[in-house]
Each structure stands twice: as C-alpha cells, then as structure tokens.
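TL;DR need structure tokens for one chain.
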Amino acid sequence: MVSNTQACSRCIYDETIPYITFDEQGVCNYCHEYDKMDKAHPTGSEGWKALYKLAHKAKKSGRGKPYDVVVGVSGGCDSSYTLWLTKELGLRPIAVHFDNGWNEPIGTVNLKKLVAKLDVPLMFVKSDQAEFDDLFKAFFKASVPDIDTSSDIALAVAHYMVAEKFDIKYIFDGHSFRTEGISPPGWFYMDAKYIRSVHKQYGLEDWSGDFPNLWMHKMLKWMVVKRIKKIRPLYYLNYNKEQTKEFLAREYGWEWYGGHHMENRTAYFVNNYYLPKKFGYDLRYCEYSALVRSGQMGREEALEKIQEPKPFDEKIIEEIKERFYFTDEVFDYYMQKKKYSYRDFKTYKQTFERWKWLFWIMSKMKVIPLSFYLKYTKKYKE
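>> reply
TL;DR here they are.
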C-alpha cells in the first residue's frame, strides 16, 4: 500500500483498511480494540494466575473422564506451543487436527513429532475430499475473499464434536491477538448460512450437504446447553513467536514452514496469492500491526518489512488448476471477475447483531472469545 493516505500514528493501518477511524492523536480504532483485548487479558503474573485458575476448572470438569481439554493442532507454531502449554499446566489434552486434504508434509511431521514426545493422543478428522474441494471451488467462483471459510468452520466443528463425544468442557485454541492480530471486518467473514448460500449458487447440485457446518442450533447447543468453552490461552502470555519457534525446534525437532498459516496449501494460496492479487489484502498488515502494538516490532521496521515481496511457490497455482479442472483461461476469468462479499449472500450477520446482548454474556462467561463478540456483533455502516 502506498502511503499518501492517513495512517495510524501507532500501528501501520491506514485509510485502506475497512471501517477505520482515527482519534485526535491519530490512533486508529483497531488499536483501541487491541487495548480492550489487552486489558481483558492481562499477562505476566496475572496472566499465569488466570491460566492456573482455568487449569483447575478444566481438571475439575474432567474428573472421571479420559481428557480435560481438546486442543486444536495444525503443526504450526501457535497451536504446537498451546499443546505444550496445556501439558505444562498439568492437563490431560486430546489433540484434534482437521485435515482438509491440502496439508503441507512439514506441518504433519511437526504434529506427529510433538504429540509423540508429549505423549498426547491425536485424533485426525478428515473431510470428504470431494465435498471440501467443491466448497473451496464454489467460493473461488463466487469471487469473494473468504474462500477458505469452509476450512475454518469445519475445524471449529471438529473441535466441538470431539468435545461432545468425550464430554469435555474446554477447547484450547492457539490464536494470539498480540502476534497475529484480528483481521478487520470487511476483509473476511464466515458462518454456516454463508457457506450454504455460496454453495447453493456455485457448487455442484448433487452435493449431499454432509459437510460439518456450524449451524446456529449446533452453535447454541455446544456453547449454551453443553457449556463447552473455547479458550485462547496465549491471550494470557507475553507470547513471542520467534522465541517460541526456537524453543519448539530445540526441544521437539519442530521445523518452520516459512510463514503464517503456510502449513496448509489452501491457506498458503489464499494468503500469499489470491488475496493480494485479487483484493489487495496483505495479511501481514494484521500481523505486523499486532507486533507493533505489543512492542515486539518497531513501527518503522514494520513499514519496511511490509514492502518486501511475499514468498510464493508458483506450483500451487498449477495444483489448483489441476484439482479443480480449470484451464488457464477459466482460472484467469475468476481471478479477474468482479469482486463480491458476504453481503451479497445469505448469512447470520443480522442475527449476530440482533443477539448482541447474548454474545456479550457468552463472551463474559468465556464461552466464546471476546474477539468474536467485537467482530461479528457490531453493525457497520456500508
């Protein structure tokens, strides 16, 4: 992004970011949202105190059961450290990995090394490959930015399904708002109705609909009735990703895969090619701004690094074309097609806005992450 537009005086967001506003000091609203998150999740001794209290509750809920907590794992840095942290807290986790059929081998190797050394049972949840590829292809044809939404939704459902199966009340998620940030509204959106709406218009007509979608009734059953809580433990730590990578490599033979979410090839394609080329979205703005806000990177350094080209393996484009039966012309057509968004399809967004009070209560009860409440229940002026 060329900066002849107003930029935040604190992070590297500027006027190209959707729904951005600036205060009198030139600080953007996203920095203020970060401060709310930071205040709600203290680190240091207070953070560890919160984690030990959480671990005590998880142990208590797990009495008489084989596991205390579900930990979502990908083989990536954040989820790997979260699994290690869970064991460090004295909990009995079951690691759950959702495989969309596009894993990078290095991520799978990392994952297997880690669970073996930590002596943690691993459950692989595999998607129906034809259905998943059909959904991904449908979103690509719909010309929206959220084309990997089906992976994120299926991942969440896999965690809740395993939690319900073993009557586990806690799910640990490896996200850290201090190192990867939270993508601004307007860049991405996801919910079950959105997936169904896109597929109905662009997917195969004979799809059975068995995809593990997170419908509202399932969401409320797991979160409200079953009281399964989704927790992000890294929110309570002064989490430093570079130090974590060194620790994992030294202790577990873990290997870095080159970039954020690059342990999966659909995420790699979306983040490093599709979004920058078609929509002009560079997710490093989220990551670097988060690192600047948390004091792990200087603002000037972030502005320099954002100018560096993103790494990309051109072979993945050929893989996309081959698996989706796209000719060069068809692929180029969809890359150049008019851009659309979730607003052009049926979604739960208005429902989330109407039930804002409920999701506020759920965030206070730690049933949903605060980031969900801040991002999905706010009504934005178009």
